[in-house]
Task: structure prediction
Amino acid sequence: MIEFIKGFVDHVTPEYIVIDHNGLGYQIHTPNPFIYKKSKQDEIIIYTYQHVREDILALYGFQSREEKALFMKLLNVTGIGPKGALAILAFGDPSQVVEAIENENDTFLVKFPGVGKKTARQIILDLKGKLGDVAALYGPNLFTHEDMEEKQTANTALNEAIEALKVLGYAEREIKKVVPLLQEERLTTDQYVKKALQKLLK
Result:
């Protein structure tokens, strides 16, 4: 098992990033790949989970061990796969997810792509009362953007955000509803994604 990878961000796509570690490129799926754009010049550590199936060998990466721990707990829920768990983590505020589980708020949980009423109830059944160790380690803001580089234009950032939302499983008709609200501001791709997710989850 690969616990973490230390290296430089070589490439960022809506679905994954590529980390250059001593000349070897690791393709790593992350909840929101665009948060790593600001790190292209810096060596980073990404905590990884290796997902192995008969037809799949994939790496999933996270900013912290706590984020990784929540991902692994979600994977233990019947009906939740890696893509579904990433979509939940992409919301960027695990404390709200934990709160929804503890309060049995399935109305909040079904707003995530791929999570229906039955799966939401299963998440609550499997995880309620078992997330205290993870929740205690999260701050109020999992992702901060104070020093985010603003090299791309707003239009490019918005287009990238739309592609990221599609990768997360949101339908085009859902995305079209929030695009006009996003166009009101000039944001980075990551900020567009987070704002879109906040509106889609309302």
Q: What stands out?
A: Residues 139-152 have pLDDT under 50 and may be disordered. The first helix runs from residue 65 to 75. The CA atoms of residues 16 and 109 lie 24 Å apart.
